Amino acid sequence: YRRYTTKSEYGFWDYWGEYIKTRIRKKSDSSARTHRAIAKQLKAFEKLDGLILPESINQSWMDRFIHFMKEQGKSNSTLKVYTSLLKSFTSYGERSEWFKANKIKLEIGAANVKDLYLTLEEVQKLQEVDLDDEKHILARDFFLFLVYTGLRFVDARSLKQTDIAEGIIHVAQQ
Q1: Which ranges of the chain does DSSP label H, i.e. alpha helix?
Q2: Residue predicted with more confidence, 170 or 127
Q3: pLDDT digit string (tens) for 28-69?
Q4: What residues contact 41, with CB distance under 8 A and at least 6 apart?
Q5: How far is it, in rounded angstroms, from Cα 14 to Cα 81?
């Protein structure tokens, strides 16, 4: 990030860097990955749409950014996360008196999600399949652990021995 003598000389990426510094200190690794992913999308969009100025993030700009992300194959849930983060950025920028934020209305429809599940027979077949590769065995066993416990991947990945007491798993969802 470039360093200037006054905030009035800052550009979008300078403000974004300051915002991220404050956000990442308080968030998890997955939040840091999300912030890096949206920065990558913003940089790609900037190449097509032109230089991003904090004051230019208005409804029209957001609509173009959403359209761009849809063309990239992003899901509605990803769109909601990214646009909410941008809205949070603009609100934070205004509260910090960096720039005047424009009002943005976010209307992203719910994702068309079909409930998918394995039958008990499919789970049993997966459990019984003979695998030779140690990596595949580990992946299968981890997946089955998730199936049988109902844990999300992110929660299971961060489990510690101290989270298991008397045969019961105690987790705080991330």
Answers
A1: 12-24, 29-49, 59-71, 76-95, 120-128, 134-149, 153-157
A2: 127
A3: 667 778 888 899 999 999 999 999 988 888 888 988 999 999
A4: 68, 69, 72, 74, 82
A5: 22
Bridge partners of residue 164, in order along the sequence: 169
The angle at the Cα of 47, spanning 46 to 49, to the nearest 5 degrees, equals 60
Alpha carbon distance 126, 144 (integer Å): 8
Does residue 131 carry a pLDDT above 80? yes
CA distances from residue 136 to 31, 39, 76, 127, 168 in whole angstroms, order as listed = 28, 33, 31, 12, 27
Residue 21 or 112, more confident = 21
CA distance 42 to 89: 13
Alpha-carbon distances of 143 from 104, 151, 152, 158, 163, rounded to whole Å: 40, 10, 10, 15, 19
Q: Give yes or no for a contact between 24 and 32, defined as CB atoms under 8 angstroms apart.
A: yes
Tell me, what's the pLDDT at 1?
41
Task: Give residue 134's pLDDT.
Answer: 93
